[in-house]
Amino acid sequence: ENNLIAQADAFEETIITVDLDNAQSIDLIKVKREEKIYQALVLGVRDYFAKTGHNEAVLGLSGGIDSSLTACIAVDALGCENVYGVSMPSKYSSDHSKDDARIIAENLGIDYRVIPIETTATAFDSALTQSFEDTNPGVAEENIQARIRGALLMALSNKFNWLVLSTGNKTELAMGYCTLYGDMNGGLAVISDLSKTDVYALSRWVNEKAKTERIPVNSIEKPPSAELRPDQVDPFDYNVVSPLVTALIEDEKSPSELIAEGIDEELVKDISRRIRINEHKRRQAAPGLRVTSKAFGMGRRVPIVNKYDELSHD
């Protein structure tokens, strides 16, 4: 028997008046998972800003799917007049990424500005020439670019009292594929509890709901890249890695369970090791909005120095 007589909208403040004498049962209105998560994040951003006394947000727009989705959520939470998007291209930034960043800003109607970082990066390289002598360029040089972008966003934040939104997702945080004091800078990590799989799902839902390309389809379909070196693409197959991270973190499966299910042993070991050794990064991340049972920093607490390896028999 259906005893439901009224149902309010999820993640909305609503007052419903019901006449109990004449109430009739109604069917439960089912809402798509993507819509529920999206509305939860919008409410989370709006509440966080109201309760911390902030009104305006700033974020880096790379043209990628993570920053595009974060910008959408921010606009729906705060209004387009209160969101500022900043493109910070380097010499490695592709034309399509710069175009995608501009298009998402135009689609959302937010303030958009471009601050190139190439001359700043060159100054860093020059300052480090002697110290880096006889070494090959690598991760250190790549991370300088991310840290320049983080410093620029923090400068805007300090000057105008804008709260910086960091745009990293849960899969990246799990694997340590993020830069301390760079793209991890921020006052709120909006999608840090969303797997890369969910980032794609929510982005497609955004366009489906809007019945238009609110998020450029190129941002959704192109291979993800940090664009910190020539022809760089992210070093993971997210279709494989994202569900495994979810299994280890949210479903609390052990590596041995996943291997017993037929998952490649070396892959499971690698992901498990990366999750373990990058806790120190996550401990320094911006606070994030929780939408799963095991959000980093809130639903899941482990020691920073953690040598336990479930697969080790030493």
Characterise the protein shown here.
This protein has helices at 33-52, 65-78, 95-108, 118-127, 139-160, 170-175, 196-210, 217-221, 238-249, 255-260, 265-277, 279-283, and strands spanning 57-60, 83-87, 111-114, 163-166, 188-189. The protein has twelve helices and five strands. With 314 residues, it is an alpha/beta fold. The mean pLDDT is 92.
Reading side by side through the largest sheet, how are the strands ordered? 3-2-1-4-5
The ordered H/E elements are HEHEHEHHEHEHHHHHH
The radius of gyration computed from the alpha-carbon positions, rounded to a whole number of angstroms, is 21 Å
- Strand % is 5-15%
Distance between the termini: 57 Å
Q: How helix-rich are the residues, as a percent range? A: 40-55%
Shape: globular
What structural class results from the helix and strand content? alpha/beta
Number of strand segments: 5
